[in-house]
Amino acid sequence: MELDLVSSITSTNIRKITFTKSFALQDYPVGDTYWKKLDSSLCQLVDQSGCEHQLEMKFQAYNVQCWMVEFEEYLPKFHGKGRVTVVNQDSNMVVYCSDCAKQS
Question: What is the CA radius of gyration of the chain?
Fold first, then answer.
């Protein structure tokens, strides 16, 4: 359902997409078709808006810890075009921010 939603967006003025209560990080391993399609759809959104680095993809997920996942491996193309943020829904803490990762 998330893939269909993202691929159906036609706005050229979108700045942030948030998946609340997302299980994608737990349900789909890196390299899964889900991530490849989402990566492609997000890159298309950036391309149609012409505003690189202004689209943010935010996942609010349960039981996600920064040490569990190499977040750069999910959505590799989009990491070069936009921002990715992952929030642990249990603690409401940011466990990953691509802007912070690029600075270190």
Answer: 13
User: For the segment 9-53, what is each residue's pLDDT rounded down to a tens digit?
Assistant: 888 788 899 988 877 887 888 889 999 999 999 999 898 887 766
Cβ atoms within 10 Å, residue 89:
16
**Residue 49 CB neighbour total at 10 angstroms:** 17
- Give me the residues paired with residue 61 across strands: 22, 88
pLDDT at residue 104, rounded to an integer: 45
What is the residue whose two structure tokens read 């600075």?
Answer: 103
Q: Tell me how crowded residue 88 is: count the other CB atoms within 10 A of its CB.
A: 18
User: By C-alpha distance, which of 3, 56, 5, 55 is closest to 28?
Assistant: 3
b/e per residue, 6-30, with b = 16+ CB within 10 A? beeeeeeebeebebeebebbeeeee
What sign has the CA pseudo-torsion 33, 37, 42, 44? positive
pTM for the whole thing? 0.84
